[in-house]
Write a structure and sequence with these properties.
This protein is α/β, with parallel strands linked by helices. The chain is 50% helix and 7% strand.
Length: 528
Amino acid sequence: MEDASAITSLPDDPQALKQIILNLSCERDERTRERDDWHVKFLRVETELLRLKKWYYGPRADRLQTPGDVAQMLLTFATDLESRPVNPNDLPTDEPLPEGGTVRRVRRGRRNLASLENLHVIRKEHDLPEDQKPCPCCGEMRQRIGSETSWQVEFIPGRFERIEHVRIKYACTHCEQNAEYPQITLADKPAQPIDKGMAAPGLLAYVVTSKFSDFLPLYRLENIFQRNGLEISRATQSVWCGDVADLLRPLYDLMVRRVLSSHVICTDDTVMPMLWPGKTKQARMWVYVGDEHNPYHVFNFTLGRGRDGPATFLKGYKQTLVADAYGGYDGVVVGNDITRAGCWAHARRKFVDAEKTHPSIAAEAVGMIKRLYVVEDHSKGLDVGQRLALRQRESVPILSMLKDKLFGWRDQLLPKHPMAEAVNYTLNQWKELNVYATDGAVPPDNNASEREMKRICLNRKNSLFVGNERGGQTAAILSSLTSTCRRHDIDPQRYLTQLLMNMPATPISCLCDWLPDQWQRRNPSQPG
């Protein structure tokens, strides 16, 4: 009845009716916009929640989680399996299966036996007691006919040793008898890493390796030392690390110059908290990864994330910088005439993070990016020219198709939709993301530098912060050396021990001989 009365109460004027219809249409559109806005806000909050939950609880790998993606992976696997040629050796034989219908695989031999060859051997012989050597039948002494050998691996905890340096004095008794200066001379001892310090090179190398390669906080190292019979406070160890960094600063500066001569540098940064009045200051640690001709990892500590840090470090550099989309690099690139390359891993991560908001777009985008990395897998072992030709032939068409897809997705999505942000991120970085397709020496991402940031994150998690700016510089220098050792599969303890033994007497002109890669060439048999 109310609807009927409302219809009868409508005006007869066509203009008035049109105005009513227009008002209702506007009201409907406004409600639709509000509903879309609330839906987008919900999707953004859901995306952020899922990203934080994944960061806090979930796996670190950027993988799609939709069932459709799993099905697609299974379909691709089955297709690849059918296309592979059949090896006759893989065909089943006519031999009957064992009872139960299953085949049990037996692992024969031991793994990693080669590493046992480097261990010191202690031989222990186990003989029969004298009363058991006579034969129980005839009573005659039994003869030794052989032996049976087995192996065990034992661990002997480290120990401290006190080295006493005795410097012999000489004097001329003849001059002394003649009331002349007796010409007293004291024998020299080798130059030490810390002058008049009690820490020998091996102990300093152990402290540095434990903190910057094994990420062990100094207070835990203090407890370990105490269990082994010597109390060395964490404050003393911290001073030692600073002294070692000061001694190795010239070698670090040489590594910086070598990295800056690279054709391609990968970079990334992360928070490195520093003690500050009231609360910790959010300082930053940057890493710069040199190319294959300058294989060094250099860390740089700054008090903030402003562009002044990379601008100062990269001053005069005019080649290619691989980095994420951080805006601070824009001024650095323009000011230094640097070619900036983008990171496809970051672009892919944007689609993975927004997967729940639009699974079909995420699956298609990630699938096309995966095809780019399949091309990269095929380019392993090729030189720069061959890799560039392969990318031009196979990657460029994929990039062209992906670009068309991105424009189509942008037109169909609301501007603030989480998936639209992933699309816009990729389109805004499109020029940088395509640099690798024009230079065979440029990697498609900066994962090399991101991997090195993990050592800073582990150190930050265990040690919490650096005490001051000098502590940050110390961490940068020592992290550079231990990280480069890892790149070359070098034992940092052995390398640093030899380095600290020889560095005090090494002239500047011979510093290059102590770069980690050069040291490894002189010590090829040293196990990593």
